[in-house]
Design a protein that fits this description.
Blueprint (H helix, E strand, L loop, with lengths): L4 E9 H11 L12 H16 L4 E5 L7 H5 L15 H13 L4 E2 L6 H14 L2 E6 L13 E5 L4 E3 L1 H8 L6 H8 L14 H11 L2 H6 L6 H10 L3 H8 L21 H11 L2 H9 L13 E2 L12 E2 L13 E4 L3 H13 L3 E7 L9 E9 L2 E6 L13 H12 L5 E4 L2 H9 L8 E4 H8 L8 H9 L6 H5 L13 H28 L1 H24 L1 E2 L2 H26 L8 H11 L17 H7 L4 H20 L2 H4 L6 E2 L2 E3 L9 E3 L11 H6 L9 E8 L2 H10 L2 H8 L4 H10 L8 H15 L4 H8 L3 H14 L1 H17 L1 E3 L5 E3 L8 H38 L3 E7 L2 E7 L3 H13 L10 E6 L2 H4 L1
Parallel strand pairs: 1-2, 1-4, 2-3, 4-5, 9-12, 10-13, 13-14
Antiparallel strand pairs: 5-6, 7-8, 10-11, 11-12, 15-16, 17-18, 19-23, 19-24, 20-21, 22-23
Helix pairs in contact: 1-2, 2-4, 4-12, 7-8, 7-11, 12-13, 14-15, 16-21, 17-20, 17-21, 18-20, 20-21, 21-35, 22-25, 24-25, 28-29, 28-34, 28-35, 30-31, 30-33, 31-32, 32-33, 33-34, 34-35, 35-36
């Protein structure tokens, strides 16, 4: 073997980088409508790699277009993979151009995959004694690991050598091919042994060493899995061949000829300017690089960890890159003496991460088990105080820990980051801690940056943005009925888990702060709306809503009796007894026995009994009408009248919901345990539930509700003169619309015409088609289209706004609210017409719904501030859609109403007045 070369080779799996960056970055577009998120992500990773391995020879390999030899071996190879997303495809060529401009060798070889090219280059390096690192997230590459070849994931800074592969997969690198053949790969459509997962594969290969030996002794494997193995023997050699990476691809150049060249800085500048990567372009300009056109310098407000906190200096920023932690230093401390240096360090730090471990997700009942702290990425500590299992070691007492951290958390000068900090604030309030520190919430930051992301929990965010695999709670606590609460978990396991929470939270918060610094409008949404709302919601949650269980119990009895009556009536109509909740029995009664025509079928081809179908049938048939009432009342009883009393906290006599900031894509709040947003108001029974929401003796309830807020926002955004004039004159906008559409005076508008106009007003906001409007109004599609045509003729500004909004959305990939909240629309340019049209409807509706959400949140912040200084004995108890609920001393109701109206109506400055309707009563139904 030749002498070992000191400078290692880095082989980059570019295709892996591309897909990881595409899914990790929000769907960004530049001003020309070009998608750039994946480009930014890949370039970020390449810049980070070049910085971390400055002396290495970096070679980048991408998959080439077209089929490979594996498709010839197996026609179904990767057959089930979905096509490349429409907004990924145009980002590939710019990535290639930037990599070439960086001076890095770029390879794409037809007929093989990037894995095969990388395998061949790794084999060449090994033959020359050159140490090689393969940068990838692909598990298949583990088969290439050897004494000279390792895998590195630069995003998580994890390195796999031979020992690491054995630790991660349970098999040696030279067994990985056989391991993959047994397990199979659904993504690549490689058949394995059905039912044989990683554990089974490891067990077999530990016993038999190779796939060939396993196949020879397949008769020894018992049970169903043995039978499945024997049935798979025919195609296992094919699976093995498909998972084997080639080591002998014919390349025009040998590895030693693939050396980096000096970067073409002028070409990079031109590319960065064209793609609008301003910070990278500015950095090159500051170094004296020139190009044909120079963008204006951009500066953003950024504190490395406290974006959104007042007092940060204005700093020029570079593209954000998630923190990479080389080593982790997690510890557990058990004395106040050990804790004191940490608290002092936290006090002096510009920001630190804080997290609690508790016994329950219910913040009112949760008991503190411990806290974790992190000041610097990679270094964190766990402080237990409530582990009470048999043999638990001595810990700081809970009262002593509370006393120690209380001054820190009640210091308004401190800046503390956390993940869903509202929960921690609520739990600590159980121990007399009134949180005053400034808040940075990584969950809320993530939501502001990309509300359309499906999950904002810490584990998902760490995987998505940091490419870091966290320890899951189930890993240390178990699952199901045997799952341990945190106080029962061994401190040796609990410590690293809890410390990691704080560490990952700090890294996420730092990264998201930098991302927000790139987007001033989103930073403003976070800083002025979402961040201050955290503590407002905390106060409202802990206040809770007073509920009369007796009233609910009486309602349950009434509904129960009505359900029995409905069952009897249904039996009479069907002429037999059947289960009203059984879709199978119901279908047989409706369609087979009664002969009602089938209007829609399920995906499995059976006649549908869905609610929409029953509503249509109810117009002509009695039984479907009765069934709808039965379903509605049954849901009302199970969800509210029976369940709400169980939600009442014994200590407070109130229900304490949890409001969620990071769920609805449009920015609206949601709630759970119980869900207050879905209490029905259209039925008399639903309204009666609100009668159970009461106030303490001597107080009254006040409900303040925005009037037609989304229509007012439409008037503001569209600037349509007709709508502006109607609102400015204080007209009934539905009557005004009816008068315009039907060509009559306002005083001639009939109730049916007003109803139609209301359907049009709200229908257009929600993107309703002529077909949908026709169905809702019970008219022909032609008549519906005529109504819509008249509407747009009378309100041309609305049509113009909708057209401009769709065009803008298609160009930039997102829409914004009045305050800058952003909603990404990944399907706005989809080739699939249905998906594209759905995105276009969302594009029209989201700015209105989102602006309404922003306004109510701004109002809550203003009202909360006003209440704190008002001197009134009043509290904000609930938020439901566009409505805020308060309880106040009866003698102070006029002062509260005046203050609340002023704050809510001043929450936004629109071209039309914001109007708040206020009601007062002894319960919610009366006040509403």
């Amino acid at each position: 073997m030749t002498a070992k070369v000191s400078t290692p080779v880095i082989l980059v799996d570019g295709s892996s980088y591309l897909f990881r960056a595409y899914h990790a970055m929000p769907p960004l577009n530049n001003s020309k409508g070009m998608p750039t998120g994946a480009i930014k992500g890949v370039v970020n990773m390449m810049r980070s790699l070049a910085k971390d391995y400055a002396d290495a020879n970096i070679v980048v390999v991408f998959d080439a277009k077209g089929p490979t030899f594996r498709n010839e071996m197996y026609a179904e190879y990767k057959a089930h993979r979905p096509p490349m997303p429409d907004d990924m495809r145009p980002q590939i060529e710019p990535i290639h151009q930037i990599i070439k401009a960086m001076g890095l060798p770029l390879l794409m070889i037809s007929g093989v995959e990037a894995d095969d090219v990388i395998g061949t280059l790794a084999a060449q390096a090994t033959a020359q004694g050159i140490d090689t690192l393969i940068s990838t997230g692909d598990k298949d590459m583990a088969q290439l690991v050897s004494p000279h070849v390792g895998l590195v994931n630069t995003m998580t800074n994890t390195y796999l050598n031979e020992e690491g592969v054995l630790g991660k997969f349970g098999v040696r690198p030279n067994q990985i091919i056989d391991y993959l053949a047994i397990v199979g790969d659904t993504a690549d459509n490689i058949p394995g042994v059905p039912g044989a997962g990683p554990k089974t594969a490891v067990k077999w290969l530990t016993q038999y060493d190779t796939l060939e030996t396993l196949m020879e002794n397949a008769h020894e494997i018992g049970g169903k899995i043995g039978e499945k193995l024997r049935n798979a023997l025919e195609f296992l050699p094919l699976s093995q061949a498909l998972t084997t990476i080639k080591l002998d691809v014919e390349l025009e150049q040998k590895l030693e000829q693939m050396v980096p060249k000096p970067a073409d800085q002028a070409a990079l500048l031109a590319l960065y300017q064209d793609l609008e990567f301003r910070s990278w372009a500015n950095a090159l300009l500051q170094d004296g690089v020139t190009a044909s056109s120079q963008p204006k310098a951009v500066t953003q407000n950024l504190g490395a960890t406290n974006a959104g906190v007042s007092g940060v200096e204005e700093t020029k920023v570079e593209a954000p890159v998630p923190a990479v932690v080389a080593t982790k230093h997690y510890s557990t401390i058990s004395t106040l003496g050990e804790l004191e240096p940490w608290l002092n360090a936290c006090r002096d730090a510009p920001v630190f991460a804080f997290d609690t471990e508790t016994t329950s997700l219910n913040y009112m009942d949760a008991q503190l088990v411990g806290i974790s702290l992190c000041i610097e990425a990679g270094t964190a500590v766990y402080v237990p105080c409530g582990h009470d299992y048999v043999g638990a070691p001595e810990q700081i007492s809970r009262p002593d820990l509370i006393a120690a951290i209380k001054p820190l958390l009640e210091d308004a000068k401190q800046v503390i980051c956390g993940q869903n900090l509202k929960y921690d604030i609520n739990v600590l309030a159980n121990y007399g801690i009134t949180w005053q520190a400034q808040v940075i919430d990584s969950m809320v930051q993530s939501y502001v940056l990309n509300s359309t992301a499906s999950r904002h929990n810490m584990d998902a965010l760490a995987q998505h943005y940091l490419f870091y695999q966290t320890v899951k709670y189930v890993d240390i606590a178990g699952k199901g009925v045997k799952q341990l609460t945190f106080n029962q978990i061994d401190i040796e396991q609990a410590g690293p888990y809890a410390a990691e929470d704080a560490d990952v939270t700090l890294r996420l918060a730092q990264y998201f702060s930098e991302c927000l610094a790139f987007e001033p409008a989103l930073a403003a949404v976070y800083d002025t709306i979402e961040r201050p709302l955290v503590t407002v919601l905390s106060r409202m949650e802990r206040t809770g809503a007073l509920v009369d269980a007796k009233v609910l119990g009486e309602q349950s009895q009434v509904i129960g009796k009505r359900l029995i009556e409905l069952e009897r009536e249904a039996y009479e109509l069907a002429d037999e007894v059947f289960n009203l909740s059984s879709t199978q029995q119901l279908g047989a009664i409706l369609y087979e026995k009664l002969g009602i025509p089938v209007t829609k079928k399920t995906p499995k081809g059976k006649p549908s009994t869905a609610e929409a179908v029953l509503q249509e049938l109810a117009q002509d048939y009695e039984l479907p009408k009765l069934l709808l009432e039965y379903r509605s009342l049954s849901k009302l009883k199970s969800t509210y009248t029976d369940k709400l009393p169980l939600e009442i906290n014994r200590a407070t006599g109130r229900i304490h919901t949890s409001y969620h900031q990071a769920v609805a894509a449009t920015g609206r709040l949601s709630s759970s345990d119980p869900n207050l947003q879905n209490i029905p108001i259209r039925s008399s029974e639903g309204r009666q539930i609100r009668q159970a929401f009461v106030v303490p003796k001597g107080q009254v309830m006040v409900a303040a509700d925005y009037s037609q807020i989304e229509l007012r926002i439409m008037a503001h955004l569209s600037k349509d003169e007709g709508l502006l004039n109607a609102f400015a004159a204080g007209q009934d906008v539905h009557k005004a619309t009816a008068a315009e559409v039907f060509g009559v005076t306002v005083d001639q508008v009939t109730s049916d015409q007003r109803r139609s106009a209301k359907a049009i007003n709200f229908g257009l906001i929600y993107g309703m088609s002529a077909f949908g409007l026709a169905k809702q109004l019970g008219i022909s599609r032609a008549q519906s289209q005529d109504y819509i045509g008249r509407y747009f003729t009378r309100y041309p500004g609305v049509q113009e706004y909708m057209d401009e909004t769709k065009a803008k959305a298609a160009k930039q990939g997102y829409v914004e609210t009045l305050f800058g909240r952003r909603l990404y629309l990944p399907d706005i340019n989809a080739s699939n017409g249905i998906a594209r049209q759905a995105s276009e409807r969302t594009a029209i509706n989201a700015p209105m719904q989102g602006t309404a959400a922003d306004i109510i949140k701004r109002a809550m912040i203003k009202v909360d501030e006003w209440l704190a200084s008002s001197g009134l004995n009043a509290r904000m108890t609930m938020q439901v859609h566009d409505e805020l609920i308060f309880e106040v001393d009866a003698a102070q109701v006029d002062a509260l109403v005046a203050g609340v109206k002023s704050a809510m109506e001043g929450a936004a400055d629109l071209l039309v007045p914001l109007i708040v309707d206020v009601g007062v009563g002894d319960n919610w139904d009366q006040a509403h």
